[in-house]
Amino acid sequence: xxxxxxxxxxxxxxxxxxxxxxxxxxxxxxxxxxxxxxxxxxxxxxxxxxxxxxxxxxxxxxxxxxxxxxxxxxxxxxxxxxxxxxxxxxxxxxxxxxxxxxxxxxxxxxxxxxxxxxxxxxxxxxxxxxxxxxxxxxxxxxxxxxxxxxxxxxxxxxxxxxxxxxxxxxxxxxxxxxxxxxxxxxxxxxxxxxxxxxxxxxxxxxxxxxxxxxxxxxxxxxxxxxxxxxxxxxxxxxxxxxxxxxxxxxxxxxxxxxxxxxxxxxxxxx
Length: 270
Known about the structure:
12 strands, 23% strand, 2 domains, Cathepsin B, Chain A, alpha+beta, globular, single chain, 8 helices
């Protein structure tokens, strides 16, 4: 599926967003027409499905190398930042490559209502179904890895779930869950970015590891770490905000780790 097809899929031709391009107001969206859009003027209230598929390489003041889409918003329950189109977990220069994103999803579940992708090594990738639904998406990716049917209602209506709810959901699926929550600021006690020093030994034996991060503009956010490449000092992650499996520099993750760490992983029986 092309980017243009992905952007326009599921849209109602009678529903139109307006964007300002070089001083003119024109209807959106049509792929390449978006390249110079000023999206600060885009109305957010009634066009969520269109908004979630805007290609963010449309701001004249922000150039994005990678194809990014926004997750949908639960109206009346979630508050968007002032400029949602600037919201991201990792900057372009922190990303080495993106193996798969929503435009590459080729698999479906829940009677076709949920689309997701599978990486070359068999990991399931999906995009969160609400602006604050990253924890639910991370949990469902872990469950999809184990061939469990995803819970669509859980995906769509979860909102900033605490770690305890993620643990409960996985345990209800019959999985053996281990978690770590620090009650102290590890960075103050052990030095800069020592939070990752807690995660690193876990990655040697168990993946994925679900970790809570704190990106600017987005706030508390959950993602999966699938591996650490020691030689290149890079990480393979699944980020539900953009629905990616990507390779990033390790310091990109360290930049957004909170002072107090929250991680969980599933231990499969031998």
